[in-house]
């Protein structure tokens, strides 16, 4: 089981050019960063994590820029979005960003995606909250075609373009792993339908055995080979016993959360996490 970390990369936390090498040097497998372009001050949408939205949500650097700095300052560290709010993004631009980052990092990118929770944020991007998952499915399938073919076209209700060239192509073939965040059975069906892995949160507890069985059941119903799907637990507890349970159950990756804070606060926490790697 691989152990990685996640952090909201912000304008008040340790810089990516400094943090990424520190993560790599301690033996962690990966670094994931989330995404919010902005947070509307109306605050009509409830944050799933509680009543008060932490300020890092509206101080977040663009994930592709952050991860570019991380990749440029490391050699083996995998880099990932956790999560990219794909329905808010332009499909063709994002396809090019993913391919470019994967190619420039030497094939180290993991594409974590999700539908998002903030209705107002999506509305500012022209995204319908109720149609966000339908849009995401079309976006993924369109990007997979762009990454895998010399020329590709796609004609859907949410995404539509004529035959086009899109280069560079990713280093990883047929494309970087696509892992989907969420915990519902609807999420699991989407994972089985068009993704390479599942990215559930551990915030409200995560029974690894029961959840792997849930995914196995849906994969069997759909005829998907379970061995082609990875499971990465986001926000996993930094507890040896729990991580051992995850590993023994068959979890592929855990992501331990770092605070959005200066180096003097982040690096000691990183040291404590590193003790769990062995």
Task: Please report the number of helical segments.
Answer: 9
What is the H-and-E element order? EHEHEHEHHEEEHEHEHEH
Instruction: Count the domains.
Output: 1
CATH topology: TIM Barrel
Q: What is the tally of beta strands?
A: 10
**How much of the polypeptide forms β-strand, as a percent range?**
15-25%
Largest sheet: 8 strands, parallel, barrel
CATH architecture classification name: Alpha-Beta Barrel
Low-confidence stretches: none
Instruction: Tell me, rounded to a whole number, the average pLDDT.
Output: 96
How much helicity do the residues have? 25-40%
Distance separating the two termini = 10 Å
How does the overall form come out from the CA principal axes?
globular
Q: Which homologous superfamily in CATH is the superfamily?
A: Luciferase-like domain
Output the structural class: alpha/beta
Strand order of the largest sheet: 1-2-3-4-7-8-9-10
Write the layout of secondary structure elements.
Elements lengths: L1 E5 L9 H10 L4 E4 L29 H10 L5 E8 L5 H14 L4 E6 L4 H6 L7 H17 L2 E5 L4 E6 L12 E4 L3 H10 L2 E3 L8 H15 L7 E5 L5 H10 L3 E5 L5 H12 L4
Parallel strand pairs: 1-2, 1-10, 2-3, 3-4, 4-7, 7-8, 8-9, 9-10
Antiparallel strand pairs: 5-6
Helix pairs in contact: 1-2, 2-3, 3-5, 6-7
3D structure, described in words:
The protein has 278 residues and is an alpha/beta fold. The chain has one domain (2-274): Luciferase-like domain (TIM Barrel, Alpha-Beta Barrel), CATH 3.20.20.30. The protein has helices at residues 16-25, 63-72, 91-104, 119-124, 132-148, 185-194, 208-222, 240-249, 263-274, and strands at residues 2-6, 30-33, 78-85, 109-114, 151-155, 160-165, 178-181, 197-199, 230-234, 253-257. The strands form two sheets. The protein has an eight-stranded parallel barrel with strand order 1-2-3-4-7-8-9-10, surrounded by five helices. Strands 5-6 form a two-stranded antiparallel ribbon. The longest helix has 17 residues, at 132-148.
